[in-house]
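In the design runs reported in the main text, the only information available to the sequence generator was the tokenized backbone. The following block is the verbatim input for one such run; it is reproduced so that readers can re-run the procedure and compare outputs position by position.
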């Protein structure tokens, strides 16, 4: 597995928000803003999100990687919410992205590099077929 998968880069952006750079299997880097769970975000903003927690070595571990309305995030899927809570996600990383095709491709790219986000360790479900 790519070493970057275990060491996402954490920095501050110009708005003084913490950011985390997640790298996909393709090598493409995606910059996400980090928020504690249940942040107040602008309504109806489309984008990508990663529910995560830190391990004992202060490394971010992805629990669920998704896309859609950033104000709802995984809230539209009750099973995912129960799983995210049970797995102990403490933060959500978000990235505004208005292009649905790009959002879906980004989720796929990140899941290929972070397979631990799939069940049973994480909460993403592998698509059959």
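Verbatim output:
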């Amino acid at each position: 597995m790519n070493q970057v998968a275990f060491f996402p880069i954490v920095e501050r952006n110009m708005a003084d928000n913490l950011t985390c750079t997640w790298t996909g299997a393709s090598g493409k880097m995606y910059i996400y803003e980090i928020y504690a769970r249940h942040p107040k975000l602008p309504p109806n903003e489309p984008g990508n999100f990663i529910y995560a927690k830190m391990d004992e070595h202060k490394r971010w571990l992805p629990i669920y990687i998704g896309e859609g309305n950033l104000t709802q995030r995984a809230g539209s899927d009750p099973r995912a919410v129960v799983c995210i809570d049970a797995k102990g996600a403490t933060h959500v990383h978000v990235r505004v992205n208005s292009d649905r095709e790009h959002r879906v491709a980004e989720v796929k790219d990140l899941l290929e590099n972070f397979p631990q986000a799939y069940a049973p360790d994480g909460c993403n479900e592998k698509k059959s077929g």
